Amino acid sequence: MRWITIDDDKQQRNFVKDIIGRFCPQAVFSGEAKNVQKGKVLIEETRPDLVLLDIDMPDGTGFDLLQQLQSVDFQVVFITAFDNYALQAFRISALDYLLKPTDPEELVAAINRAGETIQSKQLQQQITVMMQYLQAGNAAARRLVLKDMEAIHIIETAEIMYLQAEDNYTTFFLNNGQKMMVAKTLKEYEQLLENQGFFRCHKSYLFNLAYLKRIEKSDAGAVVLKDGTELPLAIRKKEALLKVLQAL
Q: Which parts of the chain are beta strand (E)?
């Protein structure tokens, strides 16, 4: 796997070269650049498999660089000191990123993940979702990128009926009957879907309020969705759910 780094911080470039050189023998260093202009030329000349891409550079951003390319036929790991709003865009699009100052173990893990095959078309779709979120804000958050064992899926949040926690995995149940298991916790998706009309009714379940049919008043407590699916409703969650419904 041939890789390059594009970053205006020379110390950062030297750091990633040192760590990857020592701990990732499968990765072959192919060059470095310090800004968007030189980075574009470097990508076109070296045709790398992986680009470690800084976000904030003197002549533009890493996003600007990607938009200048005719196609993105390589994998990208973003390196950023951006705020939480931008990090939300990475999480929604399921793109890999590292925060500055970069942790060596996280860097090695990112390189190893990048060794897995990702079709360029799928990567471009992920980048599109990310850019839409950054440009349009909360409205673009209504799309979500999910990676399961078979593929990368881009779905509308309106298609999600509910999510179920299974240890460190989350299973998505869509309105067309499709199920997808993703290697992220339910808590992560609860944060991503905040303000998108979802409610955590139980430690193991998060559901879309748009599919709520009724609330059972039995001692056990449950919410029933429009397709008849019954989900447990924790006692401590019942009052909060009623308040949310009254505010709609």
A: 2-6, 28-33, 50-54, 56-57, 60-61, 75-80, 96-99, 143-147, 152-156, 160-166, 169-174, 179-182, 198-202, 205-208, 212-216, 222-225, 230-232
Q: In 66-79, which positions are buried (b, 16+ CB within 10 angstroms) versus exposed (e)?
A: beeeeebebbbbbb
Q: What is the pLDDT of residues 36-73, one digit of tens each?
A: 999 999 999 999 999 999 988 999 988 889 889 887 88
CATH code: domain 2-138 is 3.40.50.2300
For residues 230 and 232, give the distance between their C-alpha atoms in angstroms, rounded to a whole number.
7
CATH class of 148-247: mainly beta
Indicate the domain borders of the chain: 2-138, 148-247
